[in-house]
Amino acid sequence: MAQTDNKRFFENLSGAGKAIAVLTSGGDAQGMNAAVRAVVRMGIYVGAKVYFVHEGYQGMVDGGDNIKEATWESVSSMLQMGGTVIGSARCKDFRMHEGRLKAAHNLVQRGITNLCVIGGDGSLTGANLFREEWSGLLAELVQQGLIDEEASQKYSALHIVGMVGSIDNDFCVTQRKCYLALVSALACGADWVLIPEMPPEDGWEEKMCQKLSAKRAGMKRLNIIIVAEGAIDRNNQPITSEHVKNVTYLQIQHLYLIKYNNNNTNVFVCTCRSFENNLKTYKLLAHRKPESELPQSNFNVAVLNVGAPAAGMNAAVRSAVRVGISEGHKMFAVSDGFEGFYKGQIKEIKWADVGGWTGQGGSLLGTKRTLPAKHIDKIAEQMRKYNINALLVIGGFEAFLGIMELLAARGTYEELCVPMVMVPATVSNNVPGSDLSIGADTALNAITVTCDRIKQSASGTKHRVFIIETMGGYCGYLASVGGLAAGADAAYIFEEPFDIRDLQSNVEHLTEKMKTSIQRGLNSNENYTTDFIYQLYSEEGKGVFDCRKNVLGHMQQGGAPSPFDRNFGTKIAAKAMQWISKKLNESYRKGRVFANTEDSACLLGMRRRALVFQPVVQLRDETDFVHRIPKEQWWLKLRPLMKILAKYKTSYDISDSGQLEHVVLNRPKQSEAMAAI
């Protein structure tokens, strides 16, 4: 695609005369069906023919009915299905040159020169080999008389796009690092993790059991040990889950058979590789150093939750407390946000106090929306009383406002001249300075699962429309991204004004649909309420479809945090505490901490997959304070995708799309590369 100006729009691309094939290969992975659906509908949208290749590479080799043209309707109702509906199979034939020759013939017969492969490392390695051999394969087909020279020239270029679909998360370009074992250990607060990249020292069994025994002595009845597939010891001997189970059972049974009559030690086996940052974070949080080995900082750090509860807050608090203690600080927990702060609801929190917090929902510290401005004098008094040298505030938009109010009072209250950092945590995902907030992923999961169940409730009904109201205030993140995940037909949000003509157009569009959902953000429009939209759809859809209304409410805030929110909260809070330690050391002068510079009060946010510290005062101009949202929101660029996938004609700017990257690897032996196909 030649770029003639600064803007490129998807609808201007032409797929006329082109054919695309999509296949899934290797082991099943959740989300494959969503990817297949998007490939099919986006391809058809630009006028291309799109084909399913059933049963992965085996179907491409066998041809026949395994390669079928897809229609728009053929990918309906597949978003919520697990596995892959077009099938996946290991293929010995494709590992052989003769098998790849047959596959090439089958593609050329249908004019397919664009291939989308969804799979793991082996699947994508096989696709790359197929691309490299393509011209030679066509030459052989001409030589054998299976195709003519004209077809060889017409289909001379094979274009392949690989999408990584694997539970192992082990593809080299997307970070070939530990995902399952190590990140699972972080997410569940495991007591011990064994991975191939870091073989344990000799005598690890005894050390591990000593730790488990100490936990049992502290009345912990459950231990979790995670064993990665391929784990080895220093002598290169495999460590199996069975070995770990036997070791722990014998030693713990010997020590505690009077006290306990069961062995609640769960050993999990995971397939994965490792990466360094997760390993460091896990070791920091899971293994407490003896008091004699801890640095002595003499600093006191307070942590508090502010705003509405968000799943993952507790994981963040646990991480902050343990990292702070490891850094030598004395950690203080403030109950009920700024309200608890000015009331003196402050107490020291120890390492063991936050055990088991990672998987718990809500806020165990307690959280309220109270802002500090009216109580600054009392808050300053409490900071003086407890000698608080730094603040970590975990919360939503109220936390952001609260930090700004504390900054504004620094000129009056010297006690507030300390390092402050905010970690965004809100289901609304409306905090400026961060693309993502703790809790937003859990809320999206709740919305998506609920939408799936709602649609399944109408499995015996032909035409039904569901009007679903989400949370988020004036921020349309949940409605938009939830709608995209659930396959919604439309999502009404405050950021994109709509009127009665838009509503009427949507109603007319729905006459072709079987079952669909309409998402509406909580404060998307003060006049076009959820009830109004429901009544409009019910009236206008008479004789065509019936309508149901669902208000999801606070179920989006409740429940255990998702694995992503557990890990996100853990890692972002750990990074925040390390920043606090650095700032405390930089601002300690003449026996006290004094930090009054612009960069001494920051928000730690995720910007384009990187965690970035940003001075809070610099975020003021990026904020719509009236509607409590950032002025620019990255996810708005995704909204045209939902319309395209729902068969609307719309404009989609792809100027800022990701760049394709050609990767050159040190290739393993061909037999090894193809073994996973």
TrEMBL record:
Catalytic activity line of the entry: beta-D-fructose 6-phosphate + ATP = beta-D-fructose 1,6-bisphosphate + ADP + H(+)
PROSITE patterns listed in its UniProt record: PHOSPHOFRUCTOKINASE
This protein's pathway: Carbohydrate degradation; glycolysis; D-glyceraldehyde 3-phosphate and glycerone phosphate from D-glucose: step 3/4
GO biological process: canonical glycolysis; fructose 1,6-bisphosphate metabolic process; fructose 6-phosphate metabolic process
One Gene Ontology MF term: identical protein binding
Coiled coil: none
Gene Ontology cellular-component terms listed: 6-phosphofructokinase complex; membrane
Domain of life: Eukaryota
Keyword Transferase: yes
Keyword flag Transferase: yes
Cofactor dependence: Mg(2+)
Keyword terms, alphabetized: Cytoplasm, Glycolysis, Kinase, Magnesium, Metal-binding, Transferase
Phosphofructokinase domain: residues covered: 20-175, 179-245, 300-580
PANTHER family reported in the protein's UniProt record: ATP-DEPENDENT 6-PHOSPHOFRUCTOKINASE, PHOSPHOFRUCTOKINASE
Protein name listed in UniProt: Phosphofructokinase, platelet a
